[in-house]
């Protein structure tokens, strides 16, 4: 029996590129014999709800056309639903977002034909998923992530980028502009961090916890991360001068910034963070809340199409 796909399109992704290119992609799918239904998102959590409805209707193969935020919502649907084991469902992504950082780690090409060949091949991979527990407006909340969680300066920049996206502005140049404007207002936060049984007290500028290597549109914040090793990788950027941050910006893209004395790398299965003032949190580029924050790893919980 042929697979039945459900395609979720975020029409605003990539400065509305997803909307413009849907005719091309739908024709590609049809011409290659795919049986599919589809739905468009129009706001936050639409991708999650579309995925939940598709799964409830028996769909076990989902394709996303959008960016890391769209992908994150679908991952949350797959992991949170109780109809079937999460690994009964397979997800593929045509990356058309601002960052496309999940695609970078798993080497998913941006070319539509090449990405489609990956889905046609049926090659799959079980990757880990993280779960974050945090506060949002004094309410406790939880959310899954498939790539990277960022705190401190990282989350501040992500929030500014998301505000710009809501105003229909995006792009790598804009991200770099936000990086430097947010830097001027950045603050160091005193944190107590527990990684498994190790306790760390430090003044933190920025922190990343993740499964994938990249965030922020190609910045290799977690260069040693392996998506299926059952571990969270952690990068701490401790107290650092604004001048040093500016000097290290180019090194963020190849991971060599980790040689700086203010940077420390860790791995663990559980991470807990408390801070003397709230430290903001983003998950896969989506601004979600603030400290206190904790993370856990769900090994091999997500089935994805890969080269």
Give a written overview of the molecule.
- The protein is α+β, with helices and mostly antiparallel strands and 307 residues long.
- The protein has two domains: 4-128, Probable inorganic polyphosphate/atp-NAD kinase, domain 1 (Rossmann fold), CATH 3.40.50; 129-299, Tumour Suppressor Smad4.
- Helix content is 30%, strand content 36%.
- The chain contains eight helices and 14 strands.
- It has a six-stranded antiparallel β-barrel with strand order 7-9-8-12-14-13.
- Helix 3 (68-80) links the parallel strand 3 and strand 4 (90-95).
- The longest helix has 19 residues, at 13-31.
- The two termini are 23 Å apart.
- 45% of the residues are buried.
Brief summary of the model shown:
This protein has helices at residues 13-31, 46-56, 68-80, 101-105, 112-121, 153-166, 172-185, 242-248; strands at residues 4-9, 35-40, 61-66, 90-95, 124-136, 139-145, 148-152, 189-195, 198-210, 232-238, 263-268, 270-275, 280-283, 286-305. It has two domains: 4-128, Rossmann fold (3-Layer(aba) Sandwich); 129-299, Tumour Suppressor Smad4 (Sandwich).
Task: Outline the secondary-structure elements.
Elements: E1 4-9, H1 13-31, E2 35-40, H2 46-56, E3 61-66, H3 68-80, E4 90-95, H4 101-105, H5 112-121, E5 124-136, E6 139-145, E7 148-152, H6 153-166, H7 172-185, E8 189-195, E9 198-210, E10 232-238, H8 242-248, E11 263-268, E12 270-275, E13 280-283, E14 286-305
Parallel strand pairs: 1-2, 1-3, 3-4, 4-14
Antiparallel strand pairs: 5-6, 5-14, 7-9, 7-13, 8-9, 8-12, 9-10, 10-11, 12-14, 13-14
Helix pairs in contact: 2-3, 6-7
